[in-house]
Write a structure and sequence with these properties.
single chain; five-stranded antiparallel β-sheet
Amino acid sequence: MVSTILAVNINALLKAIERATGLKLPSKVIEISLSDGVLHIRFEHPEGSETEVEPLPTRTPIYLFRDDKTGRVTALEIVDVDGILKELGLEG
């Protein structure tokens, strides 16, 4: 089980998610948190609220957050970081 963010290559993870989903994610990350296996990656603070939350097409639940005012991607939440690392072949 991943117990520290230092164990996760965030750049490789984001690139693998882009390849798996066909989605282009922002390249700037301003905040990362890990709690109870849930990895939250913030790309920017929303100008409005984050009401546009969409699940990504992966077996492991990943949710993409968008600013409802600008439509820009603001954050990504991975519900099971161990699961997505395994699914994308990034574990170990």
